Amino acid sequence: MGEKKFKKNKHTRTKKTYIKQVRNKDYRKVILARIVAILAIVIFLYYGAKNYNVSLSPKPEIYVSSYNLMQADTLLVTVKNETNKITGKFGDINLRFFNGENDNGWIAITGIPINKNPGDYKLSINVPGIDTFKKNITVLKRNFPLTKLAITPELLNKGYTAKKIVTTIDSIENKALNEVLNVINPDIYVKKPFIYPLSDINVVGNFGDIRAAQGYQVQHFGVDLKAAMGTFVYAVNDGKAVFMENLPNYGKMVIIDHGFGMYSLYLHLSEFKVTKGQMVTQGDIVALSGDTGYATGPHLHFSIKVRGAALDPLKFIGATQTSWIKF
Ligand SMILES: [Zn+2]
User: Fold this and answer.
1) CA 227 to CA 250: how far, in whole Å?
2) CA 284–ligand 1 middle distance (angstroms)
3) CA 283 to chain CA centroid, nearest Å
């Protein structure tokens, strides 16, 4: 009886264990099947998104200032509603994005050097966790007119000749300026679009004109704006006054560093209203206009440099204020 009971119990236990094992096996199979299914969905979504350009997250709002740019133009790229740091490339130039004010999103400003080869350049924007978006931007050739380098009798009396102007600009003044302009400040001071340096804008000398006299020539890498003696000159954006000198041709001049290699230059001033190293806010009076240096009369010469490249300054300001085109 005892033996029988034992046997029965043994049998029962074995049967129970068997059932338990079978149940465990089924359970494992179910778990395994679920894992495989989840993996398949993940792989499908990942490769599906890649192959068919279907994003797991919605495509961010991306805008560019233009798809067709000329030499010396400005390219502005804006990415909205993204919290992650955006990166990008235009041709072989790495774009540097900063966070704009009032939810303006991530903004990158870059310039087309005046001597950049015309053609198509790839603009790629990487939005972390979503995708890299690519399109072509066309750079067109811009022709600049040949004009006369004006030397008035008053300037001649002061010792200005074509040879002296051109050689001094090349060998002394631009060398001094380039030491400042080739520095790419890793800090950015800009948070909003640029403004004009004067209340009234009247162009009296175009950007890019090639001015020649007596076998010498110099290209005008800024714009001349009408300004009576002593007109207020405003900081076009937030930044730091990094250069204040009185040079033979450029006269009394101020350079403001806006960060990321962006600089604004104000020439032929009569009076400085800031000191070297001072932080300035957009719209601050930085100087009074004048006719110091090589100038045929009072005016403001205004220049914009981005990573050492001279850009058309009024088009630069316009690009930063432009209503953006969808990318
Ligand atoms: Zn000028």
Assistant:
1) 16
2) 22
3) 21
d(CA 263, ligand 1 centre) in Å:
16
Inter-residue contact 70 to 140 (CB < 8 Å): yes
Model confidence at 127: pLDDT above 80: yes
Q: What is the CATH number of domain 146-311?
A: 2.70.70.10
Ligand 1 geometric centre to CA of 220 (Å): 6
The Å distance, Cα 129 to ligand 1 centre, comes to 47
- Architecture per CATH, 61-141: Sandwich (2.60)
Across the range 43-58, mean pLDDT stands at: 53
- 82-110 mean pLDDT: 89
For ligand 1, the distance from its centroid to the CA atom of residue 222, given in whole angstroms, is 6
Spacing, Cα 217 to ligand 1 middle (Å): 14
Q: What is the pLDDT of residues 180-210, one digit of tens each?
A: 999 999 999 999 899 999 999 999 999 999 9
Task: Give 205 Cα–ligand 1 centroid separation in angstroms.
Answer: 6
Q: How far is the CA of 287 from the centre of ligand 1 (A)?
A: 16
Using the mean position of ligand 1's atoms as its centre, give its distance from the Cα of residue 289 in Å: 13
CA of residue 240 to ligand 1 center, whole Å: 23
Instruction: Locate the domains of the chain by residue range.
Output: 1-54, 61-141, 146-311
**CB contact set of 34 (below 8 Å; sequence gap of 6+):** none
Residue 233: which of 265, 193, 258, 188 has the closest Cα?
A: 265
Rounded distance from Cα 244 to ligand 1 centre (Å): 17
